[in-house]
Design goal:
Layout (H helix, E strand, L loop, with lengths): L7 E6 L7 H12 L4 E6 L7 H11 L8 E5 L10 E5 L4 E5 L5 H6 L4 E5 L14 H14 L8 E3 L12 E4 L2 E9 L5 E6 H5 L8 E5 L2 E3 L14 E5 L4 E6 L4 H5 L6 E6 H4 L3
Parallel strand pairs: 1-2, 1-3, 3-5
Antiparallel strand pairs: 4-5, 4-6, 6-7, 8-9, 9-10, 9-15, 10-14, 11-12, 11-15, 13-14
Length: 274
């Protein structure tokens, strides 16, 4: 079982930066381990949006050093019967609520062990019914970073809650349907269609047509600079997922679409046979 002494601790929450919640979590970590290294991954996850939190962790976690402790607190079920969990993989620890926020990443990076956190001696006391980020997850992360063995925090479980992660649908080798998963601050539309999905199809960047809302997009670029300003285009983003963007503008505003919007990719040869 890996040990996490002196590990980096990353924080992902939907707390925002206007309130002191994130700072308080850091204070708890530093009280337990004054030498802790803490990295803010994102605190701009939309409120209660577990899917957005899951996507942030999935697309970012593997860029951190080995043995990083990834804490994700997007927790609309705080205070309910949902379990606090710690998942251990060969390289990372994932710490947060059992609500699906780690389901996608744990499909990609198989856990060695997953624990229900039950050992309250590692929690901050008393435990608030509304702030487990402070009293449970920050405290456990700090103790883990001191070298406490993961198995000391609770008991093994195997029935993690899934996440309703919308999967793309391959209609045939020349058509794929999907949807927009998130809109970032630049207005880029991240979809659930991956580079692998495209590679397994007969849709090339030279023959693609992307239909979204009332719009048809026929340009795939390798960089933002390839597209003329103001023109919508498709691009494989840094997360390995298809994004729809507009150079120097917001694709969401330009196209009038947002999260959950369906789209379809097709090869122009399919649309115009012969």
């Amino acid at each position: 079982m890996p040990r996490f002494k002196d590990a980096v601790i990353s924080l992902t929450t939907d707390f925002g930066v206007e309130d002191p919640y994130v700072g308080v979590m850091k204070g708890v970590i530093l009280t337990v381990n004054p030498e802790a290294t803490i990295v803010d991954l994102s605190h701009g996850i939309p409120s209660h949006d577990v899917l957005a939190g899951a996507l942030a962790v999935l697309s970012s976690c593997e860029y951190f050093p080995a043995n990083t402790i990834h804490v994700a607190v997007v927790d609309p079920g705080v205070g309910s019967e949902r379990r606090p969990i710690l998942a251990i993989t060969e390289k990372y620890a994932f710490l947060g609520p059992d609500n699906g926020v780690f389901a996608p990443v744990l499909r990609r990076i198989k856990p060695i062990d997953t624990l229900h956190l039950t050992e309250e001696r590692y929690f901050r006391s008393p435990v608030s019914q509304t702030f487990h980020g402070r009293d449970v997850f920050a405290s456990v992360a700090a103790h883990l970073s001191l070298g406490t063995p993961p198995e000391m925090f609770g008991r093994t479980i195997e029935d993690l809650l899934p996440l309703e992660w919308p999967l793309p649908r391959t209609i045939d080798k020349q058509r794929i349907s999907g949807q927009v998963l998130r809109v970032d601050k630049f207005g880029n539309l991240t979809t659930n269609i991956s580079a692998e999905d495209l590679a397994q199809s007969r849709i090339s960047r030279w023959s693609i047509i992307i239909r979204i809302g009332n719009h048809s997009i026929t340009r795939m670029c390798l960089s933002y600079a390839e597209a003329p300003p103001g023109e919508p285009f498709g691009i494989i983003g840094s997360s390995g997922l298809l994004e729809i963007s507009v150079n120097q503008a917001s694709a969401a505003s330009r196209l009038g679409v947002g999260k959950g919007q369906p789209l379809e990719l097709a090869a122009r040869d399919w649309l115009h046979p012969g």
